[in-house]
Amino acid sequence: MLRYTLKRALSLGLSLIVASLVIFFVIEVVPGDPASFMLGLNAQPDTIAALRAELGLDVPKFERYLTWVGGMLQGDFGLSYTYRTPVTEMIGDRIWVSLPLALYALTLSTLIAFPAGIYAAARRGKAGDMAVMGATQFGIAVPNFWFAMMLVLIFAINLRWFSAGGFVGWDKGFGAAMHSLTLPAIALALPQSAILARVMRSALLDVLGEDFMRTARAKGLSRRQALLRHGLRNAMIPVLTIIGMQFSFLLAGAIIIEQVFFLPGLGRLIFQSISARDLIVVESVVMLLVFLVILVTFLVDLAYAAIDPRLRART
Amino acid sequence: MMQNTSRLALLASTALLALPLQAQAEQSDITVALQLEPPHLDPTSAAAGAIDSVLYANVFEGLTRFASDGAVIPGLSKSWDISEDGLTYTFMLNEGVTFHDGSTMDAEDVKFSLDRARGEDSANAQKALFAGITDVTVLDPLTVQVTLEAPNGSFLFNMAWGDAVIVAPESVANIKTAPIGTGAFKFENWVQGDQITLSRNEAYWGTPAALTDVTFKFISDPTAAFAAMMAEDIDAFVGFPTPEALPQFEADPRFQVIIGSSEGETILSTNNMMPPLDDRRVRKAIAHAIDRSAIIDGAMFGLGTPIGTHFAPHNPDYVDLTGLSQYDPELSKKLLAEAGFADGFTTTLKLPPPSYARRGGEIIAAQLRAVGIETEISNLEWAQWLEQVFRGKDYGLTIVSHTEPFDIGIYARPDYYFQYNNPQFQQIMDTLNRATLPAERKALLKVAQTIIAEDYVNGYLFQLAFHTVAKAGVEGLWENAPTQATDLTAVRWSD
């Protein structure tokens, strides 16, 4: 287990180094200068040059890369070009929207998908299975921003149960904060739960054909008991993989949902920073997301090993 | 008798008591949404209009200021004297003005602010406004004298810009995150990416604001803007992004729609140095190929005033020159043939993100195709546009709304991105800058507007409309946008 963990950790470290190089140099070649963007149409060339110097943009690229990476190792992402505040602080503020939202959506998605997937697998080929499969097909086909708009139309504009967007802040209390994240979380969760339910169903069906399932039935368990007691655990590997990917997606991919609900999260920060060419913010947030994605993959790998002892031995 | 009097007094006093009580029960806070969030909070070191949209007139004030009709009126300076030769301006400051941190605003702060803006290492995005100042002298704590290199008829106008507001040396270091001004509202808090809150300045030197608390929310997505207004999460949306949604608000008694004019001359900017666009006949042909009303109806849902030159129609000095570029595709083809392009030609049309450009661009491309001019459309982000078009001058045509007020002077800069070089026009602008008499200025401005219209420097399309949606009870919002500002000092809730 230790060797397995170390090997995974090494691959995590290498991925991060490669990612930092790619992110920095790809983003730096994007055309557009943050200083001219900030100063607009009437600025004089010497003013722009002065601002470039103030922002440290006149330093060679590779030197800037080393400063950036060196800072990150100490938890310092540098200073935002446009906001002139530490990127670490900006990320710190926004992650408290994005992370809870992703967790909230993932929880909802799992709560919907597990029962639906198990139910469909248990009633394979029957009307209940058809209904679940039909609904999930719909859920996958419809983009989440459309769901978002429908939710706003029904629950914010017509019923007035929720506000149409915005985040009240954690200082208004846990309940109020979660309330303002509810519609976005549902919009994010529905398409994800559709995918997850289908994966759950097919993973369970795969397991159902295994020898140990027949043994379980033979020793007297009902179909349902066998499914829950022996099938579920064995079907968890593909399901966990998908959950890991979904968490990464929900954290990094909520850009559109954050726009639709004007939530001050990481997605919106990236969106704004790209258009303002606040490259250091873009680089740092993307790097952080890459780190989280790699970290989640790492944890999922470890979880595999916990669920399936054979994986520990294989390495 | 005595008893009666006292009873009356009691009644009167309870009635008086009741008044403020009732006033308290009324709403005194407002949530205003804007599309763009400021990058930081220093109006004196960035071009971002979003900074002025939040802070101008509310938190920061200058020597002079813009009124809602665009007129320049006294601000921190209650009056001024201009010397005979037009070179010396003596500003008399209002008494008892304090910054939000309690310190006094006096002539030293004015000197500091102007010197900072015009200084060598100044990061002011409109440094040109201060270029003519040679000296700023403090005569006494309430009098400051500004000396100019040459007479400048628009000096008081320049001092009204958000870039010329008065800041204090003590607080300027943190101005980007904690702005301290003299205005009727104080800055309270900024949740980046979400909102900025202001509160009433109880020690304000002028007429105090009616509102006690102001929240600015930033909603960039048009659909979200619509939903937030419809759900009444916000009280007003200043600069509402989608004109197509306005009729729905107009029909709803809960809301009011305010449609005014902005300072945005929306033009088909033309690269005057790039062949064949360097030929006046070709540019004239383009002008006659364009049907403004089709663009206003098609791209702006009917909102926008046609213009024939680079000047705002609501300005008293505006001259209607749309007749010089009437829609006439036959004339356009004839002009092209004269210039040697009977079979037309191909050029680029580079479009920045706003819908006036993206939607207007498609319509213009179709209109130009009808006379034989093919355009290669490319959609650019703002940063790309600045790099390629504005700085690189690598374009044939582009569509931009020039939102700076009174910016006809850009035509006197040959290095400006249209690359228009006309010494006669430059001469007129030079004379205008020195002219201080209104009648003389009016005459010069008429000539200036006519020259650029007759040279067909750019395709002049329309003045961008400015639309605001608000709850029915909100009073006192600006109808027009003579500068980028959301002046809330006179806003109140009606009974």
TrEMBL record, chain A:
<keyword id="KW-0472">Membrane</keyword>
<feature type="transmembrane region" description="Helical">
    <location>
        <begin position="235"/>
        <end position="257"/>
    </location>
</feature>
<protein>
    <submittedName>
        <fullName>Glutathione transport system permease protein GsiC</fullName>
    </submittedName>
</protein>
<dbReference type="InterPro" id="IPR000515">
    <property type="entry name" value="MetI-like"/>
</dbReference>
<keyword id="KW-0813">Transport</keyword>
<feature type="transmembrane region" description="Helical">
    <location>
        <begin position="134"/>
        <end position="157"/>
    </location>
</feature>
<dbReference type="Pfam" id="PF00528">
    <property type="entry name" value="BPD_transp_1"/>
</dbReference>
<dbReference type="InterPro" id="IPR045621">
    <property type="entry name" value="BPD_transp_1_N"/>
</dbReference>
<keyword id="KW-1133">Transmembrane helix</keyword>
<feature type="transmembrane region" description="Helical">
    <location>
        <begin position="177"/>
        <end position="197"/>
    </location>
</feature>
<dbReference type="GO" id="GO:0005886">
    <property type="term" value="C:plasma membrane"/>
</dbReference>
<comment type="similarity">
    <text>Belongs to the binding-protein-dependent transport system permease family.</text>
</comment>
<dbReference type="InterPro" id="IPR035906">
    <property type="entry name" value="MetI-like_sf"/>
</dbReference>
<feature type="transmembrane region" description="Helical">
    <location>
        <begin position="12"/>
        <end position="30"/>
    </location>
</feature>
<dbReference type="GO" id="GO:0071916">
    <property type="term" value="F:dipeptide transmembrane transporter activity"/>
</dbReference>
<keyword id="KW-1003">Cell membrane</keyword>
<keyword id="KW-0812">Transmembrane</keyword>
<feature type="domain" description="ABC transmembrane type-1">
    <location>
        <begin position="95"/>
        <end position="300"/>
    </location>
</feature>
<dbReference type="Pfam" id="PF19300">
    <property type="entry name" value="BPD_transp_1_N"/>
</dbReference>
<feature type="transmembrane region" description="Helical">
    <location>
        <begin position="285"/>
        <end position="307"/>
    </location>
</feature>
<feature type="transmembrane region" description="Helical">
    <location>
        <begin position="101"/>
        <end position="122"/>
    </location>
</feature>
TrEMBL record, chain B:
<dbReference type="GO" id="GO:0030288">
    <property type="term" value="C:outer membrane-bounded periplasmic space"/>
</dbReference>
<protein>
    <submittedName>
        <fullName>Dipeptide-binding protein</fullName>
    </submittedName>
</protein>
<dbReference type="InterPro" id="IPR000914">
    <property type="entry name" value="SBP_5_dom"/>
</dbReference>
<dbReference type="GO" id="GO:1904680">
    <property type="term" value="F:peptide transmembrane transporter activity"/>
</dbReference>
<dbReference type="GO" id="GO:0015833">
    <property type="term" value="P:peptide transport"/>
</dbReference>
<dbReference type="InterPro" id="IPR039424">
    <property type="entry name" value="SBP_5"/>
</dbReference>
<dbReference type="Pfam" id="PF00496">
    <property type="entry name" value="SBP_bac_5"/>
</dbReference>
<keyword id="KW-0732">Signal</keyword>
<dbReference type="InterPro" id="IPR030678">
    <property type="entry name" value="Peptide/Ni-bd"/>
</dbReference>
<comment type="similarity">
    <text>Belongs to the bacterial solute-binding protein 5 family.</text>
</comment>
<feature type="domain" description="Solute-binding protein family 5">
    <location>
        <begin position="72"/>
        <end position="400"/>
    </location>
</feature>
<feature type="signal peptide">
    <location>
        <begin position="1"/>
        <end position="25"/>
    </location>
</feature>
<dbReference type="GO" id="GO:0043190">
    <property type="term" value="C:ATP-binding cassette (ABC) transporter complex"/>
</dbReference>
